[in-house]
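$ ./design --mode recover --in tokens.txt
reading tokens...
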């Protein structure tokens, strides 16, 4: 009888877990910031070193238009370089928005950036895709970008979508930028981000955004696309084409992530402290640039520390140094009160294997615990950002749920301490199964993964002995077969196709 009751109770619990929980135990936006790899004294020394670099070295290769705006804002010339006095940098920090909204076309999917909230999203420019059928890499295509976009549209723990791959089958750069933007519009209503190859591509693509937003000028009133731009080239110089894109994005009210992506030991110091000071100086140079063009313009302070394997010079997206540096970067940005962007979960693994899980879990959890507001590259990326994986998106979405649960922490109250429930169990049946407190906590406090296998070995073997890769592949195939969103109306789609070369 006991065994029968136990089986019946287990079936009931499984059925309860299968139903949609009334309360999500681990929603996006949980607070981070408890992991502090740097002491207060460390933070100040790194910050002071960064300001010294900007004051005494400044920036090289400054385009003429930007040079004029920087000098007008309080910078000074020193030959070919432009130096930033401490007062100018601190004015830019003080006037920068500390929190702002990244709009989704669906307002319910908008997110607030800044403060303590943590959100996982995407990034990357993978030129290869891990083929879902062969398990091998091949060049990424426009069809892949459409598929990745609609796949992540169903994943609740991916808060925003930046194009994760490059359509290598589109050699024309305007066609590439236009069709990338179109794939985002067609397949998701989350906040999205894209890149513009050159400044001249911004204005026509904004026309496409206007069509999706409801008319001329509608997009700029509520921009639902963010631009990813790297206006600083390490070490300590500007890139003219990217700076031109910055001017155009500001003209069209497109919020920006200005990304510094220095590589330790190559374009930045190999010492971790020196790297952090150098990279912080470069990201501050982007902030000062934006401040000089339009004070108070929204910018995600995207200081992404990258690491190379100093034995070979190859970029490394996983490992303890990457985890530590991105966590420290998030801590520095949050200490300055700026909306922080870091990069994590950039595994070097090519397959969905133990290395994949170890590197992704280590780096993404560290970045989240340190309070990175937007954690880029965290979904679907493989092969040190050279690859993207459909199965990876599925597995990473589940990983993010676990991370959000860690960030949520432990709620301590009379109810959750539950001394009466402990007394009932000790003096009564000797266990907590079936107790009202257990039922109440079941969905409120626990996350039940759909992919991770928690069965005993015999049941696992009888069910086909699937790996996590197998289960994720099945899930991805099902979503790609079933989820065919049409977020553009027929009239909007026709208007876009009439103006643009949609392929």
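writing sequence...
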């Amino acid at each position: 009888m006991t065994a029968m009751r136990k089986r019946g109770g287990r079936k009931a619990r499984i059925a309860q877990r299968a139903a949609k929980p009334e309360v999500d135990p681990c929603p996006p936006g949980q607070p981070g910031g408890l992991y502090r790899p740097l002491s207060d004294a460390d933070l100040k020394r790194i910050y002071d070193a960064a300001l010294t670099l900007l004051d005494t070295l400044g920036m090289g290769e400054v385009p003429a238009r930007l040079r004029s705006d920087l000098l007008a804002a309080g910078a000074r010339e020193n030959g070919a370089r432009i130096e930033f006095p401490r007062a100018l940098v601190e004015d830019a920090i003080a006037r920068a928005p500390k929190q702002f909204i990244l709009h989704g076309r669906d307002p319910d999917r908008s997110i607030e950036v800044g403060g303590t909230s943590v959100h996982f999203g995407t990034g990357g420019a993978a030129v290869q895709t891990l083929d879902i059928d062969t398990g091998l890499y091949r060049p990424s295509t426009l069809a892949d970008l459409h598929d990745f976009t609609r796949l992540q549209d169903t994943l609740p723990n991916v808060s925003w979508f930046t194009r994760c791959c490059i359509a290598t089958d589109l050699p024309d750069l305007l066609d590439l930028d236009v069709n990338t933007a179109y794939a985002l519009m067609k397949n998701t209503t989350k906040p999205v981000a894209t890149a513009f190859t050159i400044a001249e591509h911004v204005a026509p693509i904004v026309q496409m955004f206007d069509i999706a937003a409801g008319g001329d000028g509608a997009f700029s009133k509520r921009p639902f696309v963010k631009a990813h731009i790297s206006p600083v080239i390490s070490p300590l110089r500007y890139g003219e084409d990217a700076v031109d894109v910055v001017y155009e994005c500001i003209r069209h009210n497109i919020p920006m992530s200005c990304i510094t992506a220095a590589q330790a030991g190559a374009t930045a110091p190999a010492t971790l402290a020196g790297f952090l000071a150098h990279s912080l100086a470069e990201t501050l140079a982007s902030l000062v640039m934006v401040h000089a063009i339009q004070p108070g313009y929204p910018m995600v302070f995207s200081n992404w520390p990258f690491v190379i394997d100093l034995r070979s010079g190859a970029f490394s997206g996983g490992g303890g140094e990457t985890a530590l540096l991105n966590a420290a970067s998030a801590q520095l940005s949050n200490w300055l009160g700026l909306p922080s962007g870091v990069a994590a979960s950039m595994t070097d693994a090519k397959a969905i294997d133990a290395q994949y899980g170890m590197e992704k879990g280590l780096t993404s959890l560290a970045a989240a615990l340190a309070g990175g507001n937007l954690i880029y590259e965290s979904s679907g990326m493989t092969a040190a950002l050279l690859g993207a994986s459909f199965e990876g998106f599925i597995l990473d979405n589940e990983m993010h749920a676990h991370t959000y649960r860690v960030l949520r922490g432990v709620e301590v109250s009379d109810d959750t301490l539950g001394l009466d429930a402990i007394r009932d169990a000790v003096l009564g049946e000797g266990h907590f199964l079936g107790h009202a407190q257990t039922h109440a906590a079941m969905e409120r406090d626990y996350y039940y993964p759909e992919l991770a296998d928690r069965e005993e070995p015999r049941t696992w073997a009888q069910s086909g002995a699937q790996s996590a890769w197998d289960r994720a592949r099945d899930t991805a195939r099902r979503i790609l077969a079933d989820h065919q969103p049409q977020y553009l109306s027929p009239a909007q789609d026709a208007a876009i196709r009439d103006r643009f070369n949609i392929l």
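exit 0
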